[in-house]
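Quick one, T. Sequence first:
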Amino acid sequence: MSPGGHLVTTVTACAAAAAATESWPLVAGLAAGGFWIDVDHAIDYVVFERQRDLRPGAFLRYYLEGRVRRTVLALHSYELFAVLIALAWGTGNPWLLGYVGGALMHLALDLAFNGEFTPRSIVAFYSFTYRAVHRFDAAYLLGSGPPRDVAPGFWTAFFGGARAPRAVLDSPDSHASARRRG
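C-alpha cells:
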C-alpha cells in the first residue's frame, strides 16, 4: 500500500479509537503501529542500502521505483508481531495494544495491496526468517524487472504509490501469482 494510504487508514483508525475509548496511549500506539512502523524502510535505506540522499522525494522514489537491493524490514515481520502480541496480551499496556492493532492493520493492508510486486508468496515475504534465509535479497524476494511506474511529484507518489509495469501485470506468472494469493 502507498505511504499515503497507510496514513489515511491510520488517521481514520486513530479517530475512531479516540472517539470510542478516549485512551490517548492506545491512540498513540495505533498511530505508531499503523504508520510509523515504516521507519524500518528508512533504516534499511540508510544502513543496508547505504543511501545518503535523505530528501523525502529521493527516498520515496528509491522504494517505489523498485531499486531496493536488501529488504530487512525488521518491523514488518510475523516473528516480531508474535512477541509483541504476547507482551500486549500479558501486560494489557494500552500503548502496546494500540501498536499491535495498528501494526496488524498495516500488515493486512500490505498483504492485500503489495502482492503485485512480489513474484513469490506475499504471505511468506512478511516472515523475517524467510527473508533472512534468502539473505534479504530484494531481487529474489521482490523480483527484478523493468522499473516500476511512479507518478511525478512527491504527493502524487506518496498517495498513489507505484504500479507494476504493464508487461509484468499481463505476464502468465503474474496471473498465477494472483491466483495463489486469492
